[in-house]
Prior knowledge:
With 283 residues, the chain is an alpha+beta fold. It has eight helices and 15 strands.
Amino acid sequence: MRTSWGSATDRGRVRRINEDALLAYPPVFLVADGMGGHAAGDLASRLAVEEFAQLAGRVTAEPDEVHECFRRTARRLRETVAAGRTAGTTVAGAAIAAYDGGSYWLVFNIGDSRVYRLSGGRLEQISVDHSVVQDMLDRGEIDEAQAQVHPNRHVITRAVETRAEPAPDYWLIPAGSADRLLICTDGLTTELPDTELLRLLSSVADPQDAAEQLVAEALAAGGNDNISAVVVDVARASGRVDLEMTSQVPSRQPDASDDGDHWIEEIDGATVPRASHTVEESA
């Protein structure tokens, strides 16, 4: 299976730095939304991209290989982040996988970044948010409209982090000949409803143009968070087809003078962990 793809990221109109990072090169495509504030969130997302980039250039990726990337990221976070600090990142993406002679998408997610599939004119969210609000939705305590404005809508229940082993979810779905995937951080989905995502993904043929327009629309709608989008097609005539790797990560290194725990940012709308988070609670 050959793919064409495009990607875009922006720090938004409010944040001082971009804690998002992304990777786009077969067989793996992903976004990571770092948490931890100054000199920690951008480190966490960068480490995730570095580990998953070790899969780049292969024909397919095995589930065990993908999961090992999560584990290595968590291990490097524990080794790198200063004692007494915490940092973490969401990771959402898809890898090309082979099963029983067919081509599949191995979708993976931890946190509230998302993977959507556009197929047959229908946009479907494949991943499931690991968030306090999603848990409330699942229990029937709130509806979708209430979820959009809930004060805890940015509080997540799982992440790749320093305090516990990662527990991502996986989905193996057949890859259709006309599939288009959208992989994005919550800076996009907070600003744009699914109806707008569907309109843009359906009307912009080139995946690079689609990714750039999605980010531009989210900026125009407010841009209150970092915004990242990767658009992946089963290869068409347009778009960048398996030519080069896109890896966009923050370039700033940790600042040794920046002490203290910045796990919870002061800016409204930042992705933050649930305060009492443990793997057992969120499983």
